[in-house]
Write a structure and sequence with these properties.
binds ligand C2E; TIM Barrel; Alpha-Beta Plaits; alpha/beta; binds magnesium ion; elongated; eight-stranded mixed barrel; Beta-Lactamase
């Protein structure tokens, strides 16, 4: 036992001596395991990498070298370590700090399997002339610059990418401190670019992007920066503006240059695309905004511009911030409704104008925000449409309405129910099938259900919408055209559409007594509808005089605050006892 510990002590002593000796030599020494991870190294190797040994042990040698040296052209550092040919090898690398040429030898130690490797690092700078050393160093710097450029530019257009832009905005913000003025970020998003890619292919899409980059450069002033963030998003950074309005003028020039018709070069089929962009602008005149915030605000303003095709340029301001925040809140109310499968519907009576007798109810969604504020149904529907949740909301509306009707006994009383469907809902096939199934599940006779649609659905997707509506009518549901008069209604439409009636928009009713032309128009529509055997409902009746005038024209049905506001289910339908929805909602 004692002998053994004496042996161990002796072994330790000679190892320490060896370690001391190896620490004295100028060459770096390193031993890796079969996988290239550092098992041991001497003090010179620590110096070469610039970190203490404890931080190096167990690390992949390739990664350590990559940080400290640039390998020769022929063999990258990774390759150097990975290749480890059986007989060993030698290569030279350039150390960056201080500038040195280092020769690396390595050979396997055939004691274990997989074999560990011994690496020696020898400074051979004196063998290389100073001139050559500088030359090598310049070459390496060029390579690094080219690499850095790749990291900062978009490969398709050659413009700065998101990183390049962030650096440019940071620089511009610093300059803003020295030269007061305005800085503007113009966020441009190409409208319907996806359609170009889907229809004509990515080659044409790329070509269009290159063309747009060229065109946008036409509006650049000397210090402006144009960047491409990816997809169809371009950002123009303008500095040294005298006034905030200058940014809007630049955006308008952008719209002009982008909007010129374009014909792709590589297409066999000659076709012309007229590109359009939406532009959101954020501005700063030394207000301490970060590059991220400026970009984010411009992005939000761009979304606002996209929402309103009549305003392709939008400048970010507090109102937009509030609107967007409100929309986020509406969305959370919508998500909550979908999660809980609970939705408040209100019901507005449709009455016989002569007697005031209720013949049906129109269901109107009455969303409520968590803080109790009422959300306008039009806003609610708009958010559902833009966030892709309109299908799910539509299904919930139908289930809720049919459930309210069943619990209140409305259906037994033979009263009709009208449900609104937005353009997007009609755009998805399968609506008719779903509605038929839902009516069956709740025991609702189709004849009592009216589907209200607007003209936009019929104009945007005429074939599909007509098909769906025809199926619904075939199944016994009624279909009416809502908000008639404010869209693009043509007389042709009325003759051709698969509808049972129309609802005159409340903007006509509101002005009919003061505006003789409107009065005449309503009278003509009522007559025409009678000839075409279409039922007419006048919306938005608020006064006795309006009711009398409509009756005199022969309009027999109406809706409006004169008779009732939209009412809660209990007020309108009786006293529905809320119950769980059937499991497969719609
Ligand atoms: P709409 O279908 O034309 O509904 C009638 C709108 O006029 C309702 O507004 C109603 O409250 C309002 N109204 C009724 N009588 C009068 C009146 O005498 N004077 C005035 N000034 N207004 C009156 P609401 O509930 O804000 O709904 C707005 C629109 O939102 C609806 O127009 C409809 O297009 C849509 N909408 C409502 N609920 C739903 C729904 O469940 N699904 C879908 N897709 N759309 C819905
Ligand atoms: Mg309606
Ligand atoms: Mg309406």
């Amino acid at each position: 036992m004692n002998e053994e510990s004496g042996l161990v002590r002796e072994l330790r002593r000679s190892l320490a001596r060896l370690e001391l000796a190896l620490a004295q030599i100028a060459d770096g020494l390193a031993i890796t395991d079969g996988q290239g991870q550092l098992l041991w190294c001497n003090a010179s190797f620590e110096g070469l990498i610039g970190r203490p040994r404890l931080m190096l042990l167990g690390q992949p040698l390739a990664a350590l070298l990559r940080d400290a040296v640039d390998a020769d052209r022929g063999l990258g550092v990774d390759g150097l370590v990975a290749a480890r040919p059986k007989g060993g090898n030698v290569t030279t690398v350039v150390r960056r700090e201080p500038l040195q040429v280092v020769e690396i030898h390595w050979r396997p130690v055939h004691l274990e399997q997989p074999a560990p490797y011994v690496f020696t690092f020898h400074d051979v700078s004196d063998r290389v002339s100073l001139e050559e050393l500088r030359h090598r160093s310049q070459e390496l710097m060029d390579q690094q610059l080219a690499l850095a450029e790749q990291v900062h530019t978009c490969p398709v257009t050659g413009l700065p990418n998101r990183r390049g832009l962030a650096i440019a905005i940071e620089d511009a913000l610093v300059r803003l401190d020295r030269h007061p003025g305005w800085l503007a970020v113009l966020f441009c998003d190409l409208n319907r670019f996806k359609e170009v890619n889907d229809t004509y292919g990515h080659r044409v899409g790329d070509q269009l992007l290159i063309e747009l980059a060229q065109r946008m450069k036409e509006v650049l002033r000397p210090n402006d920066v144009l960047a491409r963030l990816g997809g169809d998003e371009f950002v123009l950074l303008c500095t040294e503006l005298k006034a905030a309005e200058d940014a809007v003028q630049i955006a308008e020039r952008l719209l002009q240059v982008v909007g010129r018709p374009w014909r792709p070069e590589i297409s066999d089929v000659p076709f012309v695309i007229t590109p359009q962009v939406s532009v959101g602008i954020s501005l700063c005149n030394g207000c301490g905004l970060s590059p991220d915030q400026l970009l984010h605000d411009a992005d939000l303003a761009m979304y606002e511009a996209k929402r309103r095709p009549d305003r392709p340029v939008v400048v970010f301001d507090e109102e937009i911030a509030r609107t967007l925040e409100w929309r986020v809140q509406i969305r959370s109310a919508l998500e909550q409704a979908l999660r809980s499968q609970q939705l408040t519907m209100h019901y507005q009576p449709v009455v016989e104008l002569a007697s005031g007798r209720v013949v049906a109810y129109e269901a109107l969604v009455r969303p409520q925000h968590a803080d109790g504020r009422l959300v306008s149904s039009a806003d609610f529907i708009a958010v559902a449409e833009t966030s892709g949740l309109i299908q799910a909301l539509g299904e919930l509306v139908v289930s809720q309405v049919l459930q309210d009707a069943r619990h209140s006994g409305l259906l037994e009383r033979g009263l009709g129910l009208a449900v609104n469907f937005s353009t997007q809902q009609l755009g998805c096939s399968g609506l008719a099938k779903e509605l038929i199934a839902a009516a069956r599940r709740f025991g609702c006779p189709p004849a009592l259900l009216t589907v209200e649609v607007t003209e936009t659905a019929l104009i945007e997707q005429p074939e599909r919408t007509r098909e769906e509506l025809a199926q619904l009518r075939q199944a016994g549901f009624r279909v009416v055209l809502d908000d008639f008069g404010i869209g693009y209604s043509s007389l042709n439409w009325l003759a051709e559409l698969p509808i049972d009636g129309l609802k005159i928009d409340r903007s006509f009713t509101a002005t009919m007594l003061e505006d003789r032309r409107r009065h005449a128009l309503i009278a003509a529509v009522v007559n025409l509808a009678r000839e075409l055997q279409l039922e007419v409902v006048a919306e938005g009746i608020e006064s006795e005089d309006q009711r009398a005038a409509l009756l005199a024209m022969g309009c027999s049905l109406g809706q409006g605050f004169l008779f009732a506001q939209p009412l809660s289910p209990a007020e309108a339908l009786g006293s529905p006892t809320p119950g769980p929805l059937p499991p497969a909602a719609c």
